[in-house]
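Page 42, continued from yesterday. The earlier attempt failed because a stray header line got pasted into the input along with the sequence. Redoing it now with the clean sequence only.
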Amino acid sequence: MEISLRARVRAGDPDAFRQLFDEHASVVHRHAVRMTGNWVMADDIVSLTFLEAWRLRERVLPGDDSLRPWLLGIATNVTRNTARAARRHQAALTRVPPPDPVPDFADEVTQRLADTEELAAAQKALSKMRRGEREVFTLCVWEGLDAATAAEALGVAVGTVRARLSRARKRLRKLTELELDGGASGTGGNNGTGGNRGTQGGTGQSGVQRPAAVGQSPGSRHQAARSTQEKKR
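This time it went through. Structure tokens are written below.
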């Protein structure tokens, strides 16, 4: 009879934990990135999540269900603790002189630029939500967990998850509309100025005259015509 992965993890089987890491490390990392918006912090959260999973292995319930919700619940708690530690660390840094800036030349900066911009936009909206709504939205919408599984991961009632998810969807829709309205109003000021500059004759709205053709100074045509007339006299 084959022993389930849950039973092997509960028993502290190293091979079972290797399998658990191989199957779910990327899921935990993706969840951490979406929660924090920070790639480096997400790497730390993955490590801390599996260390915490090893420490809590005896709490794994028997059965054959996936351990993904259990790991995501641990990752959510680790993210909370990491965020609190980061805030305390940042507060401590404000009390000491800042270090000299060090340029970052990592190759990953270019590769991840587009993803970072998209993630920053999502983080901006999510950061305005309550923590509980943000966690439920991340688990149910981004990670695809149903309400019951998300409730198990967060240790709350199913009704709580559904209520938070409903509020989160409404708030995110409203925040998105506000963000779009703000972006549209911020770009409208250029329509009547810079876009038309230099399109009317040789002088734009700035009053700067268009340069003369190469080899021809302003007024040279009139001087040439005047010289021709003087020669004919």
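Notes: Confidence is low (pLDDT under 50) at residues 186-221.
Reminder to self: strip header lines before submitting.
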